[in-house]
Amino acid sequence: MDLDSVYRAEYGRCVATLTRLLGDIGLAEEAVQEAFAVAVRKWDEELPANPGAWIVTTARNRAIDRLRRESTRHARHAQALLLNQPGEPEEVGPVRDDQLRMIFTCCHPALSPLAQTALTLRLLGGLDAPEIARAYLVPEATVYQRIVRAKKKIRDAGIPYRVPDAAELPGRLASVLTVLYLIFNEGYTSTSGDLLRTDLSLEAVRMARALADLMPDEPEVTGLLALLLLVEARRPARMGPAGELVPLAEQDRSAWNRELIAEGHELVRRCLRRGQPGPYQLQAAINAVHTDGPATDWTQVLSLYDQLLAHTPTPIVALNRAVAVAEVHGPALALAIVDELDLPGYHLLPATRADLLARLGRTAEAVAAYDEAITLATNDTERSFLATRRERLSREP
């Protein structure tokens, strides 16, 4: 594991732990960044046995040094709290309570939805403003401003760093579910660089499990956990031997994680018994169909997408439904749906359109659509996959 891998795997955990120790998100993030700067100089030869614990200890010491240089009463009080912490910070291990507290803090209703998700992706995922901006299709300056304002608002309003009381949980649940879903998606298809950030996907699964333990009677929490497990189960077959992307239809189903699939299916059945369908439960049900048997029952998938679109009428849901329409009713009807959608900057729209056009024999238009998708794609593996498809199509007579 190199330093960059350590940063991506440990950054969010360390910031969450330091926030608990310091009580200030901004100070915690600065201290962790300083600790990683020290690591760049000191880890040339060998990484410590527990890089996360090393970063937390170094960051705490840096924060103490900074507070000692401050002269305000608040700083002296904070310094006293830090110096009274017994022993060294515990090792960063499998317990994720700090991360869950961080999510609930960032998802306080006083913050805007974009600020909530952007701040959480920054603090827990270690994503930079440009990466978050690409994920949301908004200017980098907008993301940066929201993150800065959100941290300031948390500090100035005294928003507590804790999991809320039971009465407060439902009011923040929708935002927390959205954030966990986005964290997982960023790990499953990274905005830039390599296709997968496995550490981030697994972190989202762990936190979804913790949330399900905290709120076992919330069907959408169960649905989200089921969805993440069923998608994560397919990860081993998602890349080929040369690191290329392998689409669902071409994956080796024997490589899928059967334990995760069985657990996900059981959770979906639990959701169905409750009879309170929501978007995460419906997405989980769709993925349960994908992972049930030797082939996908596209008629059933389309029926579930009809329900999902009625519940969540967004262009992305409509685009995903169009893929199912193509399998059930043919590419011509699906293309008519896709051509009505407006998703500027979203590379999967022209990529889907290119595939449908190719299936209809409209090769020149398909090549042009692939060119647009390649231009918009920011992930290297996805871009390479699209380029390969385009090249194969352009060679056909």
From TrEMBL:
Alphabetized UniProt keyword annotations: Sigma factor, Transcription, Transcription regulation
RNA polymerase sigma-70 region domain boundaries: 7-71
GO biological process, one term: DNA-templated transcription initiation
Pfam families: DUF6596, Sigma70_r2, Sigma70_r4_2
GO molecular function: DNA binding; sigma factor activity
Domain DUF6596: 172-271
Domain RNA polymerase sigma factor 70 region 4 type: 102-154
Family statement drawn from the similarity comment of this UniProt entry: Belongs to the sigma-70 factor family. ECF subfamily.
Family annotation (NCBIfam families): sigma70-ECF
Protein name: RNA polymerase sigma-70 factor (ECF subfamily)
Organism phylogeny: Bacteria, Bacillati, Actinomycetota, Actinomycetes, Pseudonocardiales
